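Figure 6 in text form: structure in, sequence out.
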């Protein structure tokens, strides 16, 4: 890690992944999930273990009553009743009996005895065919975590209930944790690992939380309570920033505020180049409520709805009704603008804790996305029916992730036809002509794009994965982040090949990976012939600004140069020159 020392301050360099500057107190998370100690105890130690357990139960009860009171005062009595279920778990005689027995006769420490019981209890309930009982699993897990934290003397960081605004410094944050961050309390975050195209970074950008990743061992060097500044533009964390540094950042922030004000002026304008080419500029969303941000940013619809986030951070899969409501609400909020819903892209760095999916050696190459859905037909059926039903509202399109060959596309489309027939028999309305597309994010799909294009209504290029798979560079691994090169000549050839195949077959092609949101790379993508760009809502104004200052002629020249150049570094340098020339104000964020 590059580490600079200036006038009493220390700065640590990482990878900038989400723009913005914040300053405040740090909370360091070293182990998000503490491991449970397991040791044998002697007969003499039994009373002490029992006493520890009783104290932890009493403390947990006190905490729950406290939270219940706060909720009652803050949001009303009806919401506070959910904590009655938590209190009932605490008072369950079975819990006391079984854990006591394990301590007294099994002679094990109370954390271990309790955690074994809690796991068994939750596993048994989750198998019962009764929705009410199954829903109690979440209560049991929540209460168990509190009891274990109290037994182990931990505070138990709850991302949803931080007590004061802070900067989180963690070894790592998984996407499901990031999705739970309270935007009002988390000023920004820094992680030891991570990369620009991890879903944690993508989530941070969409939530507009300044973030720096790849800080190596920073979580081991800093302590909770220290004061720092985090610069998400340049990828720096500065411990105890000096007055001079704070002054410089004050100036940077003023410039950014001015730029944002200026960008508001083009909110209602289309993304049209200086020589009149209209580019469809859409937004990527992760949840139904993001529709508000899509409208606010001036996008022309949604180019990628990542539906995974409807499935994670919960114990029970979303029902057809719940999914239908989510998809329908986005389409209704944005109609007549299109909303492209991507079917479940589970796996890689997005896991569903409640589905017992075995751990894999290579999760990004494994049982995921469309491969998973084609085998887990019940789950896929629920989602496809929900999307079909929602398609009568607004302008819904659908696409499959991780298509690697025609067979997968055909199989998915055959299932879609089956569910259409089902709905027809049930007299449930749907749009029979809903456009169905394929993501091109596996090299084999790009190479076979001429074949796939005959069976799809559009393509959306997922450059995040296309780069990872083509260059064999894990998109999460900060140690090889320098090899993750969007301007690699091979990547540009694959994009060009896909665009040519799409246009030859009369279909449109977009890019929804993070390349589309990088102002330096946008002229290159447009020069390669891409029709649509889909980016995080906060990035839309900048990309629109750039497009409106670009001539297609210059974009095509850049692409022509790139397609005959052997060096990704040289292509990037050319792209930077053009982008800085046409929109210098987008690049004034260096300190
Ligand atoms: C991509 O791979 O570029 C993409 C948009 O999908 P995700 O980032 O969700 O894998
Ligand atoms: Mg992908």
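Output sequence:
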């Amino acid at each position: 890690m590059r580490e600079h020392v200036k006038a009493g301050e220390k700065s640590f360099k990482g990878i900038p992944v989400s723009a913005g500057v914040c300053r405040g107190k740090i909370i360091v998370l070293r182990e998000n999930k503490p491991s449970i100690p397991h040791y044998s105890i002697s007969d003499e130690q039994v009373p002490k273990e029992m006493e520890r357990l009783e104290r932890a139960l009493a403390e947990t009860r006190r905490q729950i009553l406290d939270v219940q009171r706060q909720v009652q005062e803050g949001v009303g009595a009806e919401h506070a009743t959910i904590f009655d279920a938590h209190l009932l778990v605490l008072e369950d005689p079975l819990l006391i009996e079984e854990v006591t027995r394990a301590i007294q006769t099994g002679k094990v420490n109370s954390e271990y005895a309790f955690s074994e019981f809690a796991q068994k209890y939750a596993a048994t309930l989750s198998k019962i065919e009764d929705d009410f009982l199954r829903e109690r699993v979440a209560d049991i897990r929540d209460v168990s975590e509190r009891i274990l934290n109290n037994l182990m003397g931990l505070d138990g960081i709850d991302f949803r209930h931080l007590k004061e605004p802070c900067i989180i410094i963690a070894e790592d944050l998984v996407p499901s944790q990031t999705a739970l961050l309270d935007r009002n309390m988390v000023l920004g975050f820094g992680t030891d690992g991570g990369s620009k195209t991890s879903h944690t970074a993508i989530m941070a950008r969409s939530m507009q939380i300044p973030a720096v990743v790849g800080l190596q061992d920073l979580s081991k060097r800093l302590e909770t309570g220290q004061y720092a500044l985090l610069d998400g533009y340049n990828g720096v964390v500065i411990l105890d920033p000096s007055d001079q540094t704070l002054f410089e950042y004050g100036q940077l922030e003023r410039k950014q505020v001015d730029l944002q004000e200026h960008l508001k002026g083009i909110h209602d304008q289309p993304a049209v180049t200086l020589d009149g080419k209209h580019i469809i500029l859409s937004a990527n969303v992760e949840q139904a409520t993001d529709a508000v941000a899509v409208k606010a940013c001036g996008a022309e619809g949604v180019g990628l709805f990542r539906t995974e986030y409807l499935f994670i951070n919960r114990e029970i899969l979303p029902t057809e009704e719940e999914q239908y409501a989510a998809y329908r609400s986005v389409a209704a909020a944005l109609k007549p603008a299109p909303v492209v819903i991507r079917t479940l892209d589970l796996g890689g760095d997005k896991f569903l804790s409640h589905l017992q999916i075995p751990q894999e050696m290579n999760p990004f190459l494994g049982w995921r996305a469309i491969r998973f859905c084609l085998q887990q037909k019940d789950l896929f059926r629920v989602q496809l029916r929900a999307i079909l039903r929602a398609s009568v509202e607004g302008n819904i399109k659908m696409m499959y992730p991780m298509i690697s060959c025609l067979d997968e596309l055909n199989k998915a489309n055959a299932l879609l036809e089956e569910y259409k027939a089902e709905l027809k028999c049930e007299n449930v309305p749907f749009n029979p002509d809903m456009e169905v597309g394929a993501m091109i994010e596996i090299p084999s799909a790009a190479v076979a794009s001429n074949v796939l294009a005959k069976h799809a209504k559009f393509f959306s290029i997922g450059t995040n994965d296309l780069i990872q798979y083509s260059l064999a560079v894990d998109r999460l691994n900060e140690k090889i982040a320098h090899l993750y090169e969007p301007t690699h000549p091979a990547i540009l050839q694959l994009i060009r090949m896909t665009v040519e195949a799409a246009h030859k077959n009369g279909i449109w092609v977009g890019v929804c990976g993070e390349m589309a949101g990088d102002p330096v790379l946008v002229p290159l993508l447009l020069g390669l012939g891409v029709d649509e760009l889909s980016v995080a809502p906060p990035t839309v104004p900048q990309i629109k600004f750039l497009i409106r200052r670009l001539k297609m002629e210059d974009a095509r020249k850049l692409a022509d140069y790139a397609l005959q150049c052997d060096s990704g570094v040289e292509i990037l340098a050319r792209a930077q020159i053009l982008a800085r020339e046409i929109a210098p104000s987008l690049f004034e964020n260096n300190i």
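Caption detail: The domain at 43-152 is CATH 1.10.274.10 (Enzyme I; Chain A, domain 2).
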